[in-house]
Amino acid sequence: MSALCMVSKLCRSVPAVRCIKATHIQPCLRRTTVTLTGEGVQRLAGDEVPELGRKWVGRWLFGCSGMVFGAVVIGGLTRLTESGLSMTDWHLFGKRPPLSQAEWEREFAQYQQYPEFIMKNKEISLQEFKFIWWMEYGHRQWGRCIGTAFLLPAAYFWHKGWFTRALKKRVVACGALIGFQGLLGWYMVKSGLEKERFTEPSDVPRVSQYRLAAHLGTAFVLYSLFLWNALGITNPPQAIKQVTTQAIKFRRLAHLTKGWVFLTALSGALVAGLDAGLVYNSFPKFADRWIPSDLLAFSPTLRNFTENPTTVQFDHRILGTVSLGLATALMVWSRRGVKLPPRAYMAASALGGMAWMQVGLGISTLLLYVPTALAAMHQSGSLLTLSFAIWLTHELKHVKKLPK
Fold this sequence. Notes:
The chain is mostly helical. It has 3 domains: 1-45, no CATH class; 51-235, no CATH class; 237-404, no CATH class. It is built from 13 helices and 2 strands; from the N terminus they run H-H-E-E-H-H-H-H-H-H-H-H-H-H-H. The chain has helices spanning 2-13, 25-31, 51-80, 101-111, 115-119, 126-160, 165-191, 209-234, 245-274, 304-307, 309-334, 342-367, 372-395, and strands at residues 33-36, 41-44. It has a two-stranded antiparallel sheet. Strand 1 and strand 2 form a beta hairpin. It starts with a helix and ends in a 9-residue tail after the last helix. One of its GO terms (biological process) is heme A biosynthetic process. This is Cytochrome c oxidase assembly protein COX15 homolog.
């Protein structure tokens, strides 16, 4: 009776509301929709979102994923140009760049107190320092732009009621990841500034490969969350008329491939952190051997998998080859008559094609001794490969179980 009273009061208090017959009250309450003809706006309660809000939220999520993609590219260039240790302090909201010659000299003097200058860059000029400083400054400021581009629209959309309950939780998780990523970035840079880590003359000042892998891995997770939710809002997965056993197996292989691509990308972070791409610049053999002689040179043995450049490069090659095999299998299988949603065929072909391109970029980068442009394209290619794997698994969301 209380629900009937509420609807009755609403009809009396808002003249523009269409009258609702008593026999249709219950279905209307289940849908939780009230139409205001005077404003021409449909107000939706519960988990329903107006079409305009859905479109803008989807665009915003795609924009955030694009900005994270850009951060990965800029971060790769920062590392390849060895610019990451040029800024030796960190401020939550950033700091203005030096404006005068005196300020630049003061910034340069601060850099000269740390291992990278002392052990490696003693001959660097102020002009050369300015280049690496601007690279690192640009990377940090881009990260802050991501935080702003995420936070302000998120607050507005939340206020407008354009987030479903499920999406609210994901938005909070993405916001937490952005904050964590910023702190993790400084934690990574700090490892390259710690003088006690570099005590031997042969030591090369660089950030910890573990922290670099964590920093890159977090960026990949954040990008994946943005992209997955954007696809879910703007391009819901297509239905499939009949779910078959082959389709279910195909979906499982697609998820396995996605995870394997992510793992391969993380191993690439270890390669970057140890400069392992400069150890053996031949393919497919390691110099004249299929298995390098120094594969397990460190003791204990487990250290080799994260600290021995030879082992790290060897593992990355193996993981990349397996990723290529899995992506190729999906592409071929999709053309062999397995029943999938229409867009899934396109996604499988895109994934297979990108995997071959990525392996080609990796081999070229290795053989040419890691040129900056090719290495940056290879790192970006890993994120593109993951993107196509995410798209494919998104299109297979309705391929879950056989009909009873």
